[in-house]
Amino acid sequence: MRFIAARRWLIGFMLLLTACSATSGDSTSPSASTYIQNKGSDTIVNLALAWAEAYQTVKPEVRISVTGGGSGTGLTALISGTVDIANASRKIKAEEIQAAKANGIEPVEHVIARDAIAVIVNPENPIGELSLEQIARIYRGEVNNWSELGGEDRPIVRLSRETNSGTHVYFLEEVVRLGDKENKEIFSADTLLLPSSEGIIAEVSENPNAIGYDGLGYVTPEVKMLAVARTADQPYVLPSVESVNNGQYPISRDLYMYTQTGAPQSVLDYLAWILSPDAQQIVTDLGFVPVLNTTAGK
Amino acid sequence: METAKGERWITWIIKMSGYSSILFVSLILFFLAREGFPALGEVPLKDLFGARWYPIEGYFGIWPLIFGSVLVTVGALLIGIPFGIGTAVYLSELAPAWIKNILKPIIEILAGLPSVVLGFLGIQLAAPFFRQFLNLPTGLTAFTGAVLLGFIAIPTIVSISEDALNTVPSAYRHGALALGANHWQTIWGVTVPAARSGLLTAVMLGVGRSIGETMAVMMVTGNAPVLPSSLNALFLPARTMTATIASEMGEVATGSTHYHVLFFIGIVLFGISLAVNLTASSLALRSRKRAERLLS
């Protein structure tokens, strides 16, 4: 619910920005302001809006328009040269790079944040680690008692975000279907679909039968995070900013912005600012994982 | 002359505001039909009334949602009817005037309590309590929703039942007492049966109030679209039609199949409410006719 509220608020803010730019357009000379077109992934749209909003205080002369539509939409727009920055929650595909090159555009990749999903249980639950396969079997409804996983004799209560949440879709693809595109498995019908992150945290912190998942940034100390292994013979890793950044935690992905070579200075400045501590704090605030500047000093 | 003109204006304005509700209802109906009926063409009937609701993968079975709504509403009535009618009987037949003067405003406050507040109490208090007390896997069940809905429906049931009981002519009560019936026999043997149609109307309006309630239900029923297999389903999570519309409408692409199916669910809900209201008003009408017959 925090997520949706934030989005509504930001869309409201975007309208306000538009209104402001419309009214102030007469007083300031139009040449003084630079426009950056930013489009793509719906997962990133809140973050991109928050950045665009915060950037107004850093460089008021730069106007950034942010739209969603999906990663593919953003990359297509970049290929056809209609946007400056494309947001994508996946890596650009080889055929998209080819199409861009055919258009005389060389895409440049920037990792701007990471998205990690923590799997959580009640602190009373003795289970501390599960493999992706085990989590998938729980959510498909194939495992229904904690004792089957070496825990107490308790029924498993599966909690999920509503189907309209990007986190739900990501969890479906990467965990329930284990990243297999051909796999058409879906959540077990008795999975509880809760309308908010808070609802999941509240139920997990109160109910020892429950298992849930949530963006790493939303997890509170009242619940226990599980260490997750890609397969049973690999190490079990707890989610943290470090384990997400070094790629050890399996349920995480990089979030990208794509530009083209020879992008205007204003776009480069904006991307440099996005990796600054101030901008990465916004990443944390919105429940994503900040990019640790491993190439500091560059 | 001036006054007559002014009065004509005022009459016209009042008349228009009266007719406006007809206009609004027909506009809503038109809009619902326009947005909802395309679903019938896009989803085969067999799938639309299928057993699985998972719209992002094209499963549009609305049976679990209809059953969820019915289950929660029936549960709410099982709680709301005894409490509601009991309270009404107490208020109308037994309570001394000073208790009545305290109780009635409190019940009105209960009626005005926002359902989101009840939902919050449900998540924080009722759900954990029911999980431990009834030893359930989770407290987020149809039963928890039914209890909250019962509380939401009670004020409606109380106020209409009390009106119905008050309209029973006092000659009935006096007659019963004169024949030697005691106070309880008078209430259960004469007064309540005489007000039966009014009480049924109260129950029907309570049904209407419960089946349309959204927020509290969405917060505490767990929203799992399970098709109930036994009576035990009352103590398992359920997903209602209202909660589905409320949680999914915000993010759905306008004009998509999912969007049309959500409106179709709206039509089903509208149909159910309409049926409930028609039943309620036909019962009220019948009671009046019988009262007239008795008096003649």
CATH class of chain B: Mainly Alpha
Reported for the largest beta sheet of chain A, the result is: 9 strands, mixed
Strand percentage of chain A lies at 15-25%
Q: Give me the Rg of chain A, rounded.
A: 21 Å
Largest interchain contact: A-B, 28 and 32 residues
Secondary-structure element pattern of chain B, one letter each = HHHEEHHHHHHHHHH
Summed up, the helix count of chain A is 10
Strand order of the largest sheet of chain B: 1-2
What is the fold-level CATH name, i.e. the topology of chain B? MetI-like fold
Q: What structural class should be given to the helix and strand makeup of chain B? A: mainly alpha
- Strand % of chain B is under 5%
The best one-word shape of chain B is globular
Instruction: State the CATH superfamily name of chain B.
Output: MetI-like
Structural class by secondary-structure content of chain A:
alpha/beta
Can you offer a commentary on this structure?
The complex is a heterodimer of chains A (298) and B (296). Helices cover 37% and strands 21% of the residues of chain A. Chain A contains ten helices and eleven strands. Chain A has helices at 2-24, 45-58, 71-79, 94-102, 132-140, 166-176, 197-206, 241-245, 265-274, 277-285, and strands at residues 34-40, 62-67, 85-88, 107-121, 129-131, 157-161, 192-194, 210-215, 224-225, 227-229, 252-260. In chain A, the strands form two sheets. In chain A, strands 1, 2, 3, 4, 6, 7, 8, 9 and 11 form a nine-stranded mixed β-sheet that branches. In chain A, 43% of the residues are buried. Chain B is mostly helical. Chain B has one domain (59-295): MetI-like fold. Helix content of chain B is 76%, strand content 1%. Chain B has helices spanning 2-36, 38-42, 45-48, 63-94, 97-112, 115-133, 142-166, 170-178, 183-194, 196-211, 215-220, 241-248, 257-295, and strands at 53-54, 59-60. Chain B has a two-stranded antiparallel ribbon. In chain B, a hairpin with a 4-residue loop joins strand 1 (53-54) and strand 2. Chain B is globular. In chain B, 40% of the residues are buried. The interface between A and B is medium-sized, with 28 and 32 residues.
